[in-house]
Amino acid sequence: MGEIVNETINESSEQLLKDKEIKPATAPRVDFVNPLDNVIAGKADLEFTMKVDLMPDFALTNLSELKAQRLVADVSDDALNDALKRLADSQKSYSDKGEGATAEQGDAITIDFEGSIGRQGL
């Protein structure tokens, strides 16, 4: 009986979309008015609502009439080198110097810190 219900829903939904010339963007969502168990048991009629996201109507544009403009920026060698250096520095990998080593310019450090307010003498 479940297969018959599914087949009926699919066929009637497809026919309705075809008759009304509706172009769905996604598969329709079906909500049953009566509980499906009651329908399968023959205690209620098969009644459902269908929700559909529609494809919008639009006219095709003649792409041969479109013109693209390529934007070009004048960049100095210094600005380019600075940008490349920043990019390279951001991708730098670090290795552990070991316990007690002194941090130097350009090193990455990890600090464990525990702070509190108003707790003196602990």
Task: Give a short overview.
With 122 residues, this protein is mostly helical. The protein has helices spanning 2-19, 36-40, 77-90, and strands spanning 29-32, 48-51. The mean pLDDT is 88.
Helix tally?
A: 3
Q: Mean pLDDT across all residues, rounded?
A: 88
End-to-end gap: 75 Å
Q: Strand order, biggest sheet? A: 1-2
**Which regions are unreliable across 5 or more consecutive residues at pLDDT < 50?**
none
Let me know the number of strands. 2
Largest sheet: 2 strands, antiparallel
Helix residue percentage: 25-40%
Task: Return the structural class.
Answer: mainly alpha
What multimeric state do the chains show?
Answer: single chain
- Helices and strands, in order, run as HEHEH
Strand proportion, as a percent range, falls in 5-15%
Radius of gyration: 34 Å
Shape field: flat
Structure, explained:
By secondary structure, the chain is mainly alpha-helical. Helices cover 30% and strands 7% of the residues. The model has no long low-confidence stretch (mean pLDDT 88).
How do the helices and strands line up, and which of them pair or pack?
Elements: H1 2-19, E1 29-32, H2 36-40, E2 48-51, H3 77-90
Antiparallel strand pairs: 1-2
List its traits:
122 residues, mainly alpha, 3 helices, 30% helix, flat
